[in-house]
Amino acid sequence: MKPHRAVGFAAVLLVWSAVCALAADAGASNDGAQVVVVYNTALRESREVAEHYAQRRGVPSEQVWGLKLSTSEEITWKEYLETLERPLLQKLESSGLWRFGPAEAATNGAPRGARKGERVVDARSRYLVLCYGVPLRIAHDANLDDPGAAALRPEFKNNGAAVDAELACLPQARNAPVRAGPRHNPLYTTTNAPLLHPTNHILLVARLDGPTPDLARALVDKALEAETEGLWGRAYFDVRNVTEPGLKQGDDWIRGAAEICRHLGYETVVDTGGDTFPPGFPMSHIAFYAGWYREHVSGPLAAAQVEFMPGAFAYHLHSFSAVTLRATNRAWVGPLLARGVTCTFGSVHEPYLGGTPDVGVFAGRFLFYGFTFGEAAYAAQPVLSWQTTVVGDPLYRPWGRSLTERIREQLLRGGRRLEWGHLQLVNFQLANGAPLAEAVRYLENQDITRKSAVLTEKLGDLYAAQGKPSSAVFTWQQALKLNPSPQQRLRLRLALAEKLAALNRDEELYENYQRLLEETPGYPDTPAIARKLLTLAEKLGRAEDAAKYRALTNSASRTNGP
């Protein structure tokens, strides 16, 4: 490689520090004083979630409001207006948190369908947190008085909406807006977080919700843990490889998020198989996931135990991914929350692809620009007053400090995430043009590498990339001795199998497959591994083992059919 093209590790580290410093300066304040918390007085658990959140985030007690609401996930427009929207507007104004003035003074233009009225001219609160038990959906009402709906395209005459998405337009509520269909979000793709403000027609609405009150309450705890320790781990993306213009946009958004994660140093995996990740795919240490298009949770994410890291974001693009938040195996948002996700969003009803969040924009704002979760979620939404619900602590901001600052802190106090900081530095180095050999030398020279399954696995990956299969095998075998997580152990076994087979090391390959089945009870691809073991047992002359694996493969064939 020519010297002027090589990017040394020290130089890349300086670039990384500058990138993270830019991100740390870009986000708006996450002061709890900017938050209003709403709970349902009909449910004790709702108030408990609200009080827990207010205590953890320092929300003033006078900004924690109870409203008597339906306990159903779906409400009528009458219920929405009379028990939620109007009381909330009245409280915001009477408390002095919002001040209204003439609508014609708007700097960004009146929203579609608005008539002259009032707008928010001053606001001390820009976030609204809805707690477990606050209704999720507004049902379509064919008799709703909504004159502007007549001019809409047929598919947008639906006035059903996510409660969150409708409340996001609360600053516009006094301008008699059209309730049916989506409204354009003028701040979609913004890189200026403070613009996401009620004086610019938008309220940042998110909910602490999920299948149980305990899960809802834990969302802020996990967010705070990640703010302290960092959002570390691996990033997984599932694209469909579609070329149809009407669908390609979904793939483009997901690919964009993947590239952002890769360039920021996350260990990034992109599945291009068309379907979702297969059940036997090893997904370990998940920090970020985005994919589409299955109706219900599937593949590795449907397992009882999924390795989501504290602070993890996960999103599956489907028209009804958030039709309910109470189920643990139906749709996507509820199951993801039940398995450990810290923040997510989804659709309560058919939004059409262009009405769903742009996860590429979200990743850029959340991971690079340092937006809070609430800011990033609304910067990523092309439309409002539609079908998106946002679940998680809207103040959650994992990248408020640079990576180098986090590593320094971890070193000083013996932090348990230090290995991930080194991994992210190495990946950032490689993504930005540093030589492979320099990344190898860096990991070889770190004392922590010899103690870390995460870094030792990465070193083995780099040896494989250098064309050193024997070194890769040895290093992965060392990683297996360093207490890897269950899914990481599975991935190491599968990687070892591929290299051992190529090296014709049949005895080791045979033992490796046996250990894989012992260590992974109920492994979805057990029949395939049994067939490989049968072939190897016959080749190695182990008749008794061959009979056992022949019986196992025959049993699987009868169970699965032809």
Coarse morphology: elongated
What is the number of strand segments? 17
Q: Structural class of the secondary structure composition?
A: alpha/beta
Q: Order of strands across the widest beta sheet? A: 2-1-6-10
Count of helix runs: 18
User: What's the end-to-end separation, in Å?
Assistant: 53 Å
Work out the radius of gyration.
Answer: 26 Å
Integer average pLDDT: 90
Sheet with the most strands?
4 strands, parallel
- Uncertain runs are 1-7, 105-115
Helix content range: 40-55%
Proportion in β-strands: 5-15%
Label this structure with key terms.
562 residues, Serine Threonine Protein Phosphatase 5, Tetratricopeptide repeat, four-stranded parallel sheet, 17 strands, 42% helix, 13% strand
Describe the 3D structure:
Helix content is 42%, strand content 13%. The strands form 6 sheets. A 4-stranded parallel beta sheet has the order 2-1-6-10. Strand 1, helix 2 and strand 2 form a beta-alpha-beta unit. With 562 residues, it is of the alpha/beta class. Among the domains are: 28-230 and 305-391, no CATH class; 435-505, Serine Threonine Protein Phosphatase 5, Tetratricopeptide repeat. It is elongated and about 85 Å long.
Task: Write a brief structural summary.
The protein is of the alpha/beta class and 562 residues long.
What is this structure's SSE topology?
Elements: H1 9-26, E1 35-40, H2 44-57, E2 64-67, E3 74-75, H3 77-94, E4 98-102, E5 118-123, E6 127-131, E7 137-138, E8 161-162, H4 163-167, E9 183-184, E10 204-208, H5 213-229, E11 234-238, H6 245-263, E12 267-271, E13 286-291, E14 308-316, H7 333-338, E15 344-347, H8 359-368, H9 373-379, E16 383-384, E17 388-391, H10 403-413, H11 418-431, H12 436-444, H13 453-465, H14 469-479, H15 486-502, H16 506-519, H17 526-540, H18 543-560
Parallel strand pairs: 1-2, 1-6, 3-7, 6-10, 11-12, 11-13, 13-14
Antiparallel strand pairs: 4-5, 7-8, 9-16, 15-17
Helix pairs in contact: 1-11, 2-5, 6-8, 8-9, 10-11, 11-12, 12-13, 13-14, 14-15, 15-16, 16-17, 17-18
